[in-house]
Amino acid sequence: MSAGSRETHEVPVDVLPPLPKDAPLPAPPPAEKSSPVENLRTFYHPASGVIILGLDWLAFGTDYVSFFLAVPVICVLSFLISFALIYAVQVKWAKDTIPSALGKSFMGAFLVGLPFPITGTLLGAAILALSGLPHHPVDAVKKLAERHGVK
Q1: Across the chain, what does the average pLDDT equal?
Q2: Which are the contacts of 71, defined by CB distance < 8 A and separation ≥ 6?
Q3: Is the pLDDT of residue 151 over 70?
Q4: What secondary structure letter does DSSP report for 2?
Q5: Are 85 and 94 in contact (CB under 8 A)?
Q6: Which one has a higher pLDDT value, 17 or 127?
Q7: 47-86 confidence digits (pLDDT tens)
Q8: Disulfide: which of 9, 44, 134, 148 matches 48 by Cβ 3.0-4.6 Å?
Q9: How far apart, in Å, are the Cα atoms of 38 and each of 27, 33, 92, 94, 95?
Q10: pTM here?
Q11: pLDDT for the residue 37
Q12: Cβ neighbours, 10 Å, residue 99
């Protein structure tokens, strides 16, 4: 067709017949839409992410602990405590197999045991991403509470 030609085309229109008065109404769409990431399984359980970042901040983000203990002692204690906690969370809440939970807890405990805070680094961002935590701490606590039915 050229720009100057004036041809008309009929467009067929499909019209549905009217519904009978006694016909049931169609079911309304579901009221609550599920989130696309609702059933997304992350590498770390969100509680493990909170444990890693929280213990790391507690051990190396403040000067309170290093005032009483030497850095090598803090590193070892941080590793041991975080290993046990992450393992328990991964086995009980994330339902990981024992070898998987051991590997994940070793990697997380290794990061906690590093003699510097990882919270504001690329490693801390990786832990946030791997555990599915939001970047804000209040949102992280709310997400954990919702996941376990605490109001």
Answers
A1: 82
A2: 115
A3: no
A4: -
A5: no
A6: 127
A7: 999 999 999 998 888 777 666 778 888 899 999 999 999 9
A8: 44
A9: 24, 10, 20, 15, 17
A10: 0.66
A11: 46
A12: 8
Q: Give the pLDDT score at 101.
A: 96
Q: Which tokens sit at 125?
A: 């961002």
> CA–CA separation, 23 vs 20, rounded Å?
5
Tell me what pLDDT residue 15 has: 76
The first and second tokens of residue 7, run together, are: 């041809």
For the chain, the distance separating the N- and C-terminal CA atoms, rounded to the nearest angstrom, is 65
Round to whole Å and give the CA distance between 83 and 75.
Answer: 12
In three-state secondary structure terms, 17 is coil
Q: What is the DSSP string of 46-103?
A: HHHHHHHHHHHIIIIISSHHHHHS-HHHHHHHHHHHHHHHHHHHHHHTS---HHHHHH
Tokens 């000067």, located at residue: 63
Closest CA to 61 of 129, 109, 120, 132: 120
